[in-house]
Structure formats: structure tokens, C-alpha cells
Design a protein that fits this description.
CATH superfamily of one domain: Glycosidases
Mean pLDDT: 93
Structural class: alpha/beta
CATH architecture of one domain: Alpha-Beta Barrel
Radius of gyration: 28 Å
Number of strands: 24
Number of helices: 24
Distance between the termini: 60 Å
Helix content: 25-40%
CATH class of one domain: Alpha Beta
Strand content: 15-25%
Shape: globular
């Protein structure tokens, strides 16, 4: 038994280099626990002897058996080097016929002798040497045939032409899928084609709210979450300020039967939209006179919310309204345009949507919410309204529009995982290795895709996932881009006494090829969130593929070269092909950071000991002084350490906006000088994450002085070619 080889074939890593450059070897027990999680159904009943036999069989399945077929089920190459690889015994030197059928239906047939092709690999198994050979189609097809080979998923088959030719134990015919991928993602060069550098505002959709007509004794804050009508109003406002895009939190469907599950990064199904984002006002059914009659008789008040979202209350209000909309919709005749549009949508979405609707209905607690058709209808309306919002961005002149966010994983009990159990590993969860920030590591409670199962399914779920999330937007941000290369897995139930986790590796090159193709097809730019522990292996492919990197001001540091600025880099040294963010949902608001209130709060939550708090406060003072020196160096303006945030932010934001990064975004929370965090990493029940509303309504934003002043300065910097000297020039 070659256990090390088996672990390698399963993608189970044996160590990693941490953020300080130190190598950590993964204990054998931890690696074995991940293997057991991957193959639990097969391994659970085995003793040591049976395990050794199983291991050899598993190695044969993953390593040797692919050589004993003419074609792999799935292979890929780039459009400028179309080629196909196949495998056959060394003893075979006969003729093969290739039949290639493109997605558009074009058919190409080609015959060739095996001995004419170069050997690119070999493998000895079952007392036979197998050779891999490469067929370069550009050398054998006509110009017209080559022009038919456009990017896409094409069908190929290979077969032996002579009746007397023998392939040994191999079947005489094999079929497979052949992915022809572009070299670059869509819109990689867009910023350079515009007269200015694009910029936008990031917003948590659920936190937006609009004022309501209400009695004087009520707060006027709605008891629902922000919806697509609020997003539309925000789009109009930001477009008028000159913004090129609106960056959103993940809009994925959350478990409706568990309203308290509020994190947009712990989705029930990433292919579906969260129904609570549906705007009743934007839905045609709400304009029908029978809608009011269809509302529940005891409708909760919709304007008694607070600055903290009460999700059960929000669910109760919104679902009652949505059910009334559905009841109106059911009354339409089959030939009604809405019914016909709905039927087309359900047909196009196929089995995946049906599975989601049936599982959500099954999970529903209330009997009146157990109709699968209700959930089909909600997805129809949600997709329709999101499409309207993206169309609005274009009408308003935004060059990019909506930027959606794809979470790194999904919860195990959700529809996404339950529909494709073979492509996920249900007995493991995604997280991060131990580091100074989290000495015990991080467990995010999300079910990882299984690299072997993914490959065996021809990457079907990954393709479906990208297609769903690249709709109705101008760009997609992929959370934790490193997950296409490797993910940290914890075995299910891991605790202080249980085996730890390790990195599991994925077929990165193939996933990247799929990503580039789907990006081009959807007309959707791609931003890869590459913050944190970034393996060097993904850097060059991202650059070559035109995928935008993700910078964050807090982490854009070089303390060796810029000690006088507390490490903050010169704006001229920001990554050019990147989205620079002033802040995101995982760091404190800039106002809280400037005042040190985030540190005090972490202490109050028990995340800091008293001595740790004092160290953090001292370091923060150094950072503040460094920031002020940085501002003076790159803006020419001097501020005291006692400067108020309203004076600091416009200068800070504009100076970062002057940097090299082609894309730039600011958080609405910072533009409103919020102090309260939307999310505090490392907490769950200790802090009400993902529940904080913005302190100002949509109606108040247009006249907010800090927002107006800051965005005016940012727009000026992005629209004028401000020259920034590099650190070397400055020094």
C-alpha cells in the first residue's frame, strides 16, 4: 500500500508555508482524517487489511485506470493552441478516427496514424506500457475547420479504424468533452479603454432602508431588509455621483426555514437568490387590486424596526407579502404574459431549480409555506428584479454596473450540497489554518467541493455555479480566489482533541480555463479576492488570464521599505490590474479604526486580554502617525493626530483613489462615518453579525455632507490622470 501516493491523488497536502514564511508539516494523522472524510462511505467498515486492499484499488482508479482508455472524459486547451491528447498501448501503431462535434453542431472528422504523433507521457500498468500522444489540430485542419473551433464545450470521440487493429483491453471507441478556452477573461482591458479609472461603492444590500410614512410614535425604519427597489434607488444616486459600479454582498439564497441564519457567506444555495431581497413594489402582482385582499389578515407593522435587523420579524413581514403576490399570480390565466414568462424561466432553469424549490418547501416549518411552486415563483421574481437593476446601471451610464460576490462555499444541509453529494465532501468543512489572528484556526462551517468528485462529474457543478452568478452583473468577485487552487479542510467534528486540518488541492488550471470561458460567455469581468495567505502558483495565471486582483488598504503594506509610514505603500505601487478597496466587511470601519473603538470592542467581546489590548492600542497609535505622514507625503496636506474623521476621510479616500489600481471602491459604511461593524471575524453568537442597518436612510444619503464631499474628491482623482511617484522616486 502506497498511502503517500493515494493522499497525493486525492489532493491532500502534506504541509504549507504560513504568512511569516515558516513551513509547517501536516501530521500524518491529520492527513489521514481528511482522507477518511473524503471516502467515509467506503472506509467506515474496513479493517487494516481491507484498507490496504481498498487503497490499492483506489490508486488504480485514480492513477492507472485513466490510462486504460483512449480519451479522458474531460480535457481542455486554449483556442490558440487547439490540441487533443489520447492514450493507447505502446504496441498499437494503427490508425484512429477523430469525430469532433462543436456546440453549434459543426462536425469535423479526421484520420491519423498514432505513430505520427509525439509522445507526451507514459505509464506502465497491467504489464503494459501506455503512451500519451498529442494531436495538434492546427497542423491538420483547414482554415475553415479551424475557424469553427470557437471557445466552448465540444464533444469528441476516437475510434480504431481497422477491424484487425487491437488496443488490448481498451475499448475500440471512447467519447469525451473537450473544453476550448480563451486566454483572457471578459473586460480585462476595459479600464484602459475608458477616459477615467472606474470607481464604485460597496454596499450591504440588506442594510439599506427607505423611509416610510408612519405615525409619529414609530421609528420609520422598516422591519424588512433592504431589497431590489432600495438597490435601484441607490444605483440612481451613485450614478449621479459618477460611480461606475455598485459592489454587492453575496445575494445567495439563505435558509428560509432558519431566518436567524443571516450571513450572506453561509448560503443555502449559491445558484439561487435570497427571496427577502424581492421588492413588493417592483413586482407587477402588487399593482393588482386583489393583492391587498390576499395579504394576511393580521399583517405585522412594517415600520417598527431598529438599526439592528430582527430577521424573524423581517421574515414574517416579507413572506406574508410574497405569499400574497404568489396568490395573485396563481390567478392569472395560462396565456397571461407573466405565466408564460414564468414557464420559460422554470423550463430554462431545469432540475436544479426544481430541487431547490422542493427542498426549501420540505424544510419549511409552516404548512402554508410547503408549496414548491411558491419557491419557483420567488426565484422567477428575484431574477427578474436583479436583471432590472443591472439594466438600470446601464441606462444610468455606469460602465460596469453591479459587481456580484460568490461565496467560497455552501452549508451542508442546503440544496446545493444535497443535490450534488458526490461533488462535495459532507464530512469536512472549509476554514483557515492557525495563525496569529486565530491561533486555533478558523472553521467557517461550509462544505467543500471534492476535487475528485468534481473531476469525475466533468466539473458540472462548478460550471453551473459560475453561470448562475455571472448573470445580471458587470463583474463577479470570487471570494477566496485561492480556493480554486487549494482550500483548508477541517474534518467534521474537529475540536481541540481531534485531528486537525490540512490543505486540499484542486485542478486549478482546468478550473481557471472554465472560469475564463464562462466569463467571456456571460460578458462578466472577474475579480479574484486574493487577500491573506496567497500561494504563488495562482499569481501569474491570474495576471495572464486578465483576472483583477483585490487590494485592501489595510493590508497594502511594506514595513521594510516604508517604516516611516507604518508600512503603508505609496499609491503608485498599488497593483495596477486590481480592485483597490478602502475597507471591506472583514475589517473595522475606518471611523472605528481611527478612534480605536474596534480594539475596545474586541476586548469587550473577550477577544483580547488586557495586555493584548494595550499592545494593540499602542500599535494603532503608530499606525495613525504613519498614516498621517503618508497623507502628507502623497497629498501635501498635514493633519494632526487629533483630526476629526470628517476632515480625514475625504483626503484619505482621494489619496488612495489616486493610486495605480484600475478599479477602486469605498464602503458606504465609511462614507456615512459608521462606527459599528457589519461583521466581526472570529465571532458568531458574541456579536450580531450581518444585522446592522446603515445609520441613514436612502432619502438622507443624497444630502449627506461627508458622502458628497468624499465622492467628489474621489471622482476628481479618478477622472484626472494624477501622477504618483513610486517609493523609489520619493526616497
Amino acid at each position: 500500500m502506497d498511502l503517500e501516493k493515494l493522499l497525493y491523488l486525492q489532493g491532500v497536502g502534506n504541509g504549507f508555508v504560513d504568512c511569516d514564511g515558516q513551513h509547517h508539516t501536516t501530521p500524518a494523522a491529520d492527513r489521514l482524517s481528511i482522507l477518511q472524510a473524503m471516502c467515509h462511505g467506503e472506509l467506515a467498515p474496513l479493517d487494516d487489511t481491507a484498507f490496504a486492499v481498498w487503497s490499492e484499488q483506489r490508486i488504480d482508479l485514480l492513477d492507472a485506470r485513466p490510462w486504460r482508455t483512449l480519451l479522458l472524459p474531460f480535457q481542455w486547451c486554449y483556442t490558440d493552441t487547439p490540441k487533443l491528447r489520447f492514450r493507447c498501448p505502446q504496441t498499437f501503431d494503427g490508425e484512429l478516427q477523430l469525430q469532433l462535434v462543436t456546440e453549434s453542431g459543426s462536425s469535423i472528422a479526421l484520420r491519423f496514424f498514432v505513430s505520427d504523433l509525439p509522445v507526451t507521457g507514459d505509464y506502465y500498468t497491467h504489464e503494459q506500457l501506455y503512451l500519451e500522444r498529442e494531436l495538434a489540430l492546427s497542423d491538420r485542419l483547414s482554415a475553415d475547420q479551424l475557424s469553427a473551433l470557437v471557445p466552448g464545450y465540444h464533444s469528441v470521440s476516437l475510434s480504431v479504424t481497422g477491424a484487425d487493429a487491437a488496443l488490448g483491453d481498451l475499448p475500440a471507441t471512447a467519447q469525451g468533452m473537450w473544453l476550448l478556452a480563451p486566454r483572457r477573461s471578459y473586460g480585462a482591458g476595459l479600464p484602459g479603454q475608458l477616459p477615467h479609472k472606474p470607481w464604485g461603492v460597496s454596499v450591504q444590500l440588506f442594510a439599506l432602508w427607505s423611509e416610510t410614512d408612519c405615525a409619529a410614535h414609530r421609528s420609520g425604519i422598516p422591519a424588512t431588509v433592504g431589497d431590489f427597489a432600495d438597490l435601484a434607488a441607490f444605483i440612481r444616486l451613485m450614478a449621479a455621483k459618477g460611480a461606475d459600479f455598485i459592489q454587492l454582498n453575496p445575494l445567495h439564497a439563505l435558509p428560509l426555514h432558519h431566518p436567524e441564519a443571516a450571513s450572506p457567506y453561509s448560503p443555502y444555495d449559491r445558484r439561487r437568490l435570497h427571496p427577502l431581497y424581492i421588492s413588493v413594489a417592483l413586482c407587477p402582482e402588487s399593482s393588482e387590486p386583489q393583492w391587498q385582499a390576499a395579504l394576511p389578515k393580521k399583517q405585522p407593522a412594517n415600520d417598527n424596526g431598529s438599526e439592528w435587523i430582527d430577521y424573524p420579524a423581517a421574515f414574517k413581514v416579507k413572506v406574508g407579502q410574497l405569499k400574497a403576490l404568489f396568490n395573485v399570480f396563481k390567478g392569472y390565466a395560462p396565456q397571461h404574459p407573466r405565466q408564460q414568462a414564468y414557464a420559460r424561466f422554470v423550463s430554462e432553469q431545469g432540475a436544479a431549480l426544481q430541487f431547490y424549490a422542493h427542498l426549501q418547501a420540505q424544510d419549511a416549518v409552516s404548512p402554508w409555506l410547503k408549496n414548491p411552486a411558491f419557491y419557483l415563483y420567488l426565484q422567477f421574481v428575484a431574477e427578474e428584479q436583479l436583471a432590472q437593476c443591472q439594466a438600470l446601471t446601464q441606462t444610468c451610464g455606469m460602465s460596469i454596473g453591479l459587481v456580484r460576490d460568490l461565496a467560497v462555499g455552501a452549508i451542508g444541509e442546503g440544496a446545493e450540497v444535497q443535490q450534488h453529494p458526490q461533488q462535495f465532501c459532507a464530512r469536512a468543512s472549509i476554514g483557515a489554518p492557525p495563525d496569529p489572528f486565530a491561533p486555533q484556526g478558523q472553521n467557517w462551517g461550509l462544505t467543500p467541493l471534492d476535487p475528485v468528485g468534481l473531476r469525475q462529474a466533468n466539473f458540472g457543478h462548478f460550471i453551473e455555479l459560475l453561470r448562475a452568478n455571472m448573470q445580471h452583473c458587470g463583474a463577479l468577485r470570487i471570494d477566496h480566489m485561492m480556493g480554486l487552487f487549494r482550500l483548508w479542510w477541517w474534518p467534521q467534528g474537529a475540536d481541540d482533541s481531534a485531528p486537525g486540518g490540512t490543505y486540499v488541492y484542486y485542478p486549478f488550471d482546468c478550473l481557471m480555463a472554465i472560469l475564463l470561458l464562462e466569463s467571456q460567455r456571460a460578458g462578466c469581468m472577474v475579480i479574484g479576492e486574493d487577500l491573506g495567505l496567497v500561494p504563488t502558483e495562482i499569481i501569474e495565471p491570474m495576471q495572464q488570464g486578465g483576472i483583477f486582483s483585490n487590494e485592501l488598504f489595510y493590508f497594502c503594506l511594506d514595513e521594510t521599505r516604508y517604516p516611516q509610514f507604518a508600512g503603508f505603500k505609496a499609491p503608485g505601487e498599488y497593483k495596477p490590474h486590481a480592485l483597490m478597496m478602502l475597507a471591506n466587511h472583514d475589517v473595522p470601519t475606518m471611523h472605528a479604526w481611527w478612534q480605536g473603538k474596534d480594539l475596545q470592542q474586541r476586548y469587550q467581546l473577550g477577544l483580547y486580554q488586557p495586555d493584548e489590548l494595550q499592545q494593540a492600542l499602542a500599535l494603532r497609535q503608530q499606525k495613525k502617525h504613519g498614516l498621517l505622514r503618508w497623507l502628507y507625503e502623497y497629498s501635501g496636506q498635514s493633519l494632526p493626530v487629533t483630526a476629526d474623521f470628517a476632515t480625514l476621510l475625504p483626503l484619505w479616500a482621494a489619496t488612495v483613489a489616486s493610486g495605480n489600481s484600475e478599479l477602486y471602491s469605498l464602503a458606504l459604511a465609511d462614507l456615512l462615518a459608521e462606527e459599528t461593524a457589519i461583521n466581526i471575524p472570529g465571532t458568531s453568537t458574541e456579536y450580531p453579525n450581518w444585522r446592522r442597518r446603515y445609520s441613514h436612510s436612502l432619502q438622507q444619503l443624497a444630502q449627506h455632507p461627508l458622502l458628497r464631499q468624499t465622492l467628489h474628491g474621489v471622482q476628481h482623482m479618478r477622472r484626472h490622470n494624477i501622477h504618483q511617484l513610486t517609493g523609489e522616486n520619493r526616497q
